[in-house]
Design brief:
alpha/beta; Rossmann fold; 2 domains; binds pyridoxal-5'-phosphate
Length: about 325
């Protein structure tokens, strides 16, 4: 297993220059005063497809050979990776097949179809999405673009934190939403190269803390049916590649509850005028709840995405 490194993140960053948005970094005076810290939000909810995953998807497609592009790509995803691969495939004029849970938010499914991909649905509780995707690889010669267990995907995801640190300078701590660990792994490569003293934390939902358990145990722990409103972070387990990078570089993994995610989502809507999906709130919720003491620190937070079904968003905004 060859792990990606910071050189790979730099190469991805050059490839993405004219294709991904350089997303804004925002601050909230209210939050800074409340915490006695300076918090920089990297707003990947403004990225193309509404989440950072475009970075990894595009970088993976960019590295395919002409023969691979002609046979097409297949991906499995609860939503944002699906849209990322679908849009990247459209830009490279490559056919894409996306394996999606039947329970995925309607907005994510509609967007994926809108980019011209073929959607194949499965039942998250009884079927194995990896096996379904593998069938397209075996029978049709498609290339699988996994959501996180892939060096090019990880390198692409790392470009968001590269931009953040280059823009705002050194940070004392950085909080990154954590599902399968692609985003955290890429972020760790960028932070370790540009800002080695920055402590980088992954943030998981309480109901799906497999990475936290994996670090404690020293081996990958699998949780079969994780439950939380952070639907983009319900991956059952890290991959060997993301586990290795997280073990090597992360300062730790912390968790937040659904109620804490909802409170962060409401803060973004009411105070910062930002639409952030529940999974996108993971890093922010850990900071707002001061899971780690932050007084006097410069703190980075990755807002990972903003794709939320409008009906669900309305309910979350109205939750007390
Ligand atoms: C996929 C996703 C995550 C988790 O990323 P991993 O690379 O799987 O850890 C977090 N937030 C959003 C919005 C996502 O789409």
């Amino acid at each position: 297993m060859k792990l990606p490194n910071y050189e790979d993140v730099m190469r991805a960053s050059h490839r993405l220059v004219n294709y991904a948005h350089h997303t804004p970094v925002l601050q909230s005076q209210t939050l800074n005063e409340r915490l006695g810290a300076q918090v920089f939000f990297k707003c990947e909810n403004f990225q193309r497809i509404g989440a950072f995953k475009f970075r990894g998807g595009y970088n993976a497609l960019a590295n395919l050979t002409e023969a691979q592009r002609q046979r097409g790509v297949v991906a499995f995803s609860s939503g944002n990776h699906a849209q990322a691969v679908a849009l990247a495939a459209k830009l490279f004029q490559v056919p894409a097949t996306i394996v999606m849970p039947r329970s995925a938010p309607a907005a994510k499914k509609a967007a994926t179809l809108g980019y011209g991909a073929t959607v194949v649905e499965y039942d998250r509780l009884t079927e194995d999405r990896e096996r379904i995707a593998q069938r397209f690889v075996d029978e049709q010669g498609m290339t699988l673009i996994p959501p996180f267990a892939h060096a090019d995907v990880i390198a692409g995801q790392g470009t968001a934190v590269k931009e953040l640190i280059e823009e705002v300078g050194g940070l004392d701590a950085l909080f990154v939403p954590l599902g399968g660990g692609g985003l955290l792994s890429g972020s760790l490569l960028a932070a370790n190269a540009l800002n080695p003293s920055c402590k980088v934390y992954g943030v998981e939902p309480e109901g799906g803390n497999d990475a936290q358990q994996s670090l404690a145990k020293g081996e990958i722990v699998r949780l079969d049916c994780p439950q939380a409103i952070a639907d983009g972070a319900l991956t059952p387990a890290l991959a060997p590649m993301t586990f290795a990078l997280i073990q090597q570089y992360a300062a730790g993994v912390v968790t937040v509850s659904d109620a804490e995610l909802i409170s962060a989502l409401q803060f973004f809507a009411s105070r910062m005028k930002l639409v952030v999906e529940p999974t996108g709130c993971l890093g922010a919720a850990a900071v707002m709840q001061e899971r780690i003491p932050l007084k006097g620190m410069r703190v980075g937070v990755l807002i990972s995405g903003g794709n939320v079904d409008l009906a669900q968003y309305g309910q979350l905004l109205a939750t007390r």
